[in-house]
Structures are given as C-alpha cells and as structure tokens.
Specification:
It is elongated, with a radius of gyration of 25 Å. The strands form two sheets. A six-stranded parallel beta sheet has the order 2-1-3-4-5-11, sandwiched between helices. It has a six-stranded mixed beta sheet with strand order 7-6-8-9-10-12, sandwiched between helices. It has 331 residues and is an alpha/beta fold. The relative contact order is 0.12. The chain starts with a helix and ends in a 13-residue tail after the last strand. The longest helix has 16 residues.
Length: 331
C-alpha cells in the first residue's frame, strides 16, 4: 500500500480508503485513479491482513444437499453473483443433508472464520445444524425454510395452488400427483397447496393418486407407472419436479397415453429443457437466482447487526402444450 501511495502521490491512509471505496471521505475520481493504478501494477489486497484489521474474512459459507440439481445451481448462481457484487466470496459445501456431514461442514466453515452461513440443505425435521447453533456465526435458511427461523424461500405452497387452479380451469377433475420425497419441505408444501385448492373444488386426492419419489427422471417414470398400475387413467398429472415429469411422460407414452392430448402434465422448476421437449412442458417457474441474491443481502444485513425479515419469493406458472388443452366433457 505504501508503494501504491507513492505511485499515486497520496497518503497511505487515503489509498487505503480509496481501495475500500469510501466515497464519504475520498473523491470518486481519486478512487478510480487508485483502482486503475492497482490494476496496472498488479497490486492485490491482502485478505488475511484485512481480516485481522476488520475481523471479517469476506467469505460466506453455503450448505447445499447436491450440486447436480438445476434448482440449486440456479440459486448458487444468484448467491455467487450477489456475494461478488458485495465484495464477498461464496464457499459452497455439499452435505447430502446428512446430519453428521452437515455438522462437519459447519465446523470446518466456522473454523475458517466465514462471516456467515447460508443453509440450503434442510429437510423436514432437520432444523439448523447443531454445530451452527452452538457457534456465534450468523446464519439463515435459503430455498427451504425451517419454522420461524430467518430465511429467504420460494413460495412452494403458492406454486402448488397455481397448478391446481390451472388444471381446474381446464376442466380436470380426475387428477394424480407424482410427488417428491416425503422428507423435503418443498414437496410437502407444493402438494399441500395443490391439495387445498382441489379439495375446495370438491375433488378428493386419495392416497392411491399420490406416489412419492426421489427427484430423478427414472424415479418419475417408476412413480407414474405405479399410478397407472393402480388402474388409474387420470386426465391430469402434477409432477412436483421437471425431472420427475420427464420420466412420467415416458411412462404415459408407454401406456399409449399422449401428453398434451390424453393427459395434461405439469412440472415444477421450469428447467431450460422443459420448453424444448417434444411436447413443451408446463411448469412452475421459481426465480431461484433472486432467492440466492436476497439470501446474500439478508445475511450481510444480519452480519452488520440488523434484524432483517424473512422473505418469500413468489413463483409463476408457465403454461405450454403439455397442459394447455381442456379436458373432454365426458371426463
């Protein structure tokens, strides 16, 4: 910093404030000039020294159950972008939602003195990792909320309601659900929202019309085959995940049922491939990058000593050919 001050013809203290972007005490032109000189001469801030001075590492920890799910990838994109804009680095750890793995990951992140942690791997009944509760590290939940804990979540209950209203408006009363894992709060809320709306319309969703499955394509195929094996021929199917819906569509095809003509099919998360399928898939679009960005802002507010409120991001239903038709009057 002394060398940079000599190059700029400024005091070291002024250079320090300029590098921090302190516009209340340094002119914008000076901040820009110091930044250009630093870039030209290859000067980099010393993160360790800055942490010793400020007590902050400028690193945020993120817990996710997997890196292969598109939904988590979208949220992580938002987290990474917003963290970078705010001068932070996001460090992601995959836990698989296992309690021992979660606690070990938290202990590692706390040991590296991250400034805060975003927990996005919660399942039903899991709560906050024990190692995190016993630490002084600020944290919040993202995507999947837990009780009244601070969080930024997608409104999955509303998403389920939107699908139910859409199918009812199209005249469907004979419906079935390819549901997600029973331990996922997201699948529980989507199913709950869907069930509440169709129940008010006088349509009962019996146990034989709901099959729980993990989030993959093969699991969706197996779940739909099981529903059809019960002798059901629903006019509409709500799949709580697009991968499940892709597998379900294959099972329907194997039973000589055409998606978008014989059966309406709606998925969830609106992954990019959904619009490019042979029969474009209707799906609930969650703005998960927004969830990630808001989670970073809320966590940084918490780190600064404020008490930010929990936030819910509303989804929207994208209607495509897979569910755009009306049910046959005789059905």
């Amino acid at each position: 910093m002394t060398q940079l001050a000599q190059l700029a013809g400024l005091d070291v203290s002024t250079v320090s404030r300029a590098l921090r972007g302190d516009r209340s005490r340094v002119a914008s032109a000076t901040i820009e000039r110091v930044g250009q000189l630093a870039a030209e001469h290859g000067f980099q801030p010393d993160a360790v020294a800055a942490a010793l001075r400020t007590g902050r590492t400028k690193v945020l920890g993120v817990l996710v159950p997997t890196m292969t799910d598109v939904a988590y990838a979208q949220m992580l994109e938002g987290i990474a972008q917003q963290a970078s804009l705010r001068g932070y680095l996001a460090m992601t750890t995959v836990t698989g939602s296992a309690r021992r793995t979660r606690n070990a990951a938290v202990a590692s992140l706390v040991g590296q003195r991250v400034d805060g942690i975003i927990v996005a791997d919660s399942t039903v009944g899991s709560g906050a990792p024990t190692a995190l509760v016993s630490s002084a590290t600020p944290f919040l939940f993202a995507l999947r909320g837990v009780g009244h804990q601070l969080g930024v979540v997608a409104d999955d209950t509303l998403g389920g309601r939107l699908v139910a209203e859409h199918l009812l408006d199209r005249g469907h009363r004979d419906v079935a659900v390819v549901a997600g894992p029973t331990n996922a709060t997201t699948s529980r809320r989507r199913l709950s929202g869907f069930r509440d709306v169709i129940r008010r319309a006088g349509v009962e969703l019996g146990a034989d019309r709901v099959v729980h499955a993990d989030w993959g394509v093969a699991e969706g195929h197996a779940a739909m085959a099981e529903l059809l094996g019960h002798g059901l021929r629903p006019t509409a199917v709500f799949s709580l995940n697009d991968y499940n819906a892709i597998g379900a569509s294959r099972a329907l095809q194997n039973s000589a049922l055409e998606v978008g003509r014989d059966v309406a099919l709606v998925g969830y998360n609106d992954i990019s491939i959904s619009a490019e399928l042979p029969v474009p898939l209707s799906s609930v679009h969650n703005n998960l990058e927004t969830v990630g960005r808001l989670a970073v802002d809320s966590l940084l507010s918490l780190i600064d000593g404020h008490e930010p409120p929990s936030q819910t991001v509303a989804p929207r239903l994208i209607v495509r050919e897979s569910s755009g038709f009306s049910a046959h009057p005789q059905r």
